[in-house]
Amino acid sequence: MQKKGLLIVISGFSGVGKGTIVRELLSRYPENFALSISATSRPMREGEEEGREYFFVNREKFERMISEDRLLEHAVYNGNYYGTPKDYVLQEVNAGRNVILEIEVQGGLQIRDKFPDSLLLYVVPPSAKELYARLVGRGTESVSEILRRMRRAVDEADFVPRYDAMTVNDDLETCVREVYELIRKKQEEAAFRDELLSRLKEELLIITKEDDNQ
Ligand code: 5GP
After folding, report:
1. Which of 29, 32, 163, 167 could form a disulfide with 120, with the two C-beta atoms 3.0–4.6 Å apart?
2. Is 90 within a domain?
3. Which atom of ligand 1 is nearest to the CA of 11?
4. What per-residue confidence (pLDDT) applies to 1?
5. In this predicted model, what pLDDT tens digit does every residue of 163-203 receive, in sequence order?
6. Is residue 47 one of the residues assigned to a domain?
């Protein structure tokens, strides 16, 4: 039987570098990982492409996707819908690939509820000052938008303990290796657990059957 892939949620404060970490994982291990492309009702930004960053849909279409149960999870962020299309993710997981979902915390926790075996990772910056510098440096948001995102980070911080692990993106290389290690460890543990449990179940059945025969 084909071994299933792992669902990996990567969340983190806006501007922390989640996108770069995910791109690194995909380019270093293209065989191992697939990236889920979300649907969103937010307008397309300059430089974005349909089907590359997101599938851009209007609110009506998004609500239809919800009612037709075509999303694995969804959330409202800054007044816009965001959600993970179900078909692609399940197809890749069933083909044995690890699928990365780069999503915010409400969605991450929905994935945890539906797929207890998923891995939830949260990326934080080394300091608030550094986060501010990164957000200013990428030049895609106004100062008031940056401050709004940083205020949101204060609320998000309370959810981080519900994730499996938190990693600090200080040095990118160290952070990518740490994330990869966490994924590898989770897979190893799951493989060990599944193998041992299936052997134990078989043994238990044999012993209890022998007892039944007496
Ligand atoms: P942005 O508008 O800056 O691209 O994304 C805003 C937030 O939405 C980010 O935290 C991003 O990770 C999150 N996000 C992107 N796609 C999804 C999704 O499918 N589901 C959820 N719950 N959040 C998402």
Report:
1. 163
2. no
3. 12
4. 64
5. 999 999 999 999 999 999 999 999 999 999 999 999 999 99
6. no
Label the pairing between strands 98-102 and 33-35.
Answer: parallel
pLDDT at 213: 67
Q: Which domain holds residue 25?
A: 7-35+100-212
Distance 18 CA to ligand 1 centre (A): 11
Share above pLDDT 70 across residues of the chain, in percent, rounded to a whole number:
98
Q: Could you report the per-residue pLDDT of 117-128, keeping only the tens digit for each?
A: 999 999 999 999
Which among 182, 176, 181 has a CA at the least distance from the CA of 119? 182
Q: Is the pLDDT of residue 147 over 70?
A: yes
For 164, counting Cβ atoms within 10 Å of its Cβ (0-12 exposed, 13-18 middle, 19+ buried), the class is middle
The protein residue with its alpha carbon nearest to ligand 1, atom 23, reads 103
Taking every pair of Cα atoms in the chain, the longest distance, rounded to a whole number of angstroms, is 78
Q: How many domains does the chain have?
A: 1
Q: Is 156 in the pocket of ligand 1 (CB under 6 A)?
A: no
pLDDT of 36: 97
Here the tokens at position 59 are 């609110």
Helices and strands: H and E segment counts in the chain: 7, 9
Ligand 1 atom at shortest distance from the alpha carbon of 39:
19
CATH number, domain of 161, equals: 3.40.50.300
Residue 67 lies in a domain: no
Q: Is the CB of 83 under 6 A from ligand 1?
A: yes
Cα 36 to Cα 74: distance, rounded to the nearest angstrom = 13
